[in-house]
Amino acid sequence: MEGLIEGRVVHYTQELTPFVDAEGKGSMVPSIDNRKEHLAASVAHVYKVDPKAKEDKGLVDLKLVVPRVSGAPGMNDFVEKVAYDESGKPGTWHWIPKA
After folding, report:
1. pLDDT grade, residue 11 (50/70/90)?
2. Cβ 75 vs Cβ 60: under 8 Å
3. Residue 41 pLDDT > 60
4. Is 84 helix (H, G, I), strand (E, B) or coil?
5. In angstroms, rounded to a whole number, what is the distance separating the alpha carbons of residues 2 and 58?
6. pLDDT at residue 70 in the model
7. For residue 18, which of 6, 34, 32, 4 has the smallest C-alpha distance?
8. Mean pLDDT in residue range 9-33
9. Using CA atoms, how far apart are residues 35 and 56, in angstroms rounded to an integer?
């Protein structure tokens, strides 16, 4: 995928999951935003594309920038073999939109 190199900053779409804290209060992690949150992420590894493959899925490992949320359980800040999806489907990465 053109322009995809280690160190590049992209967005990872994190699917939100409900949790109940020690006091029995329910919430969403990290916040409620149509059931998904776009997190900044640094590309840690780019998987090489098999020349025989019909398409480049843009598979990468990402180091996420995870916001601190009071009372929330720890979130994984590293995800592996994440595919590119322009629409921002949960569990995928996409280029950061122009401001």
Report:
1. very high
2. no
3. yes
4. strand
5. 9
6. 44
7. 32
8. 64
9. 27
> Tokens 């990402």, residue?
62
In sequence order, what DSSP letters do the residues of 15-75 get, joined into one string? Answer: EPEEEE-TTS-EEEES--STTEEEEEEEEEEEPPPPTT-SS----EEEEE-PPP-TTPPPP
Query: At 24, which amino acid appears?
Result: G
pLDDT at site 68: 65
Q: What is the pLDDT of residue 60?
A: 97
**Looking at the predicted structure, is the pLDDT value of residue 80 above 80?**
yes
Cα maximum dimension of the chain: 54
Tell the residue number behind the tokens 């059931």, with chain if given: 35
The position carrying tokens 């020349």 is: 51
Per the structure block, which two tokens stand in for 75? Answer: 């979130």
Within 13 Å, how many C-alpha atoms sit on residue 78's CB side?
Answer: 3
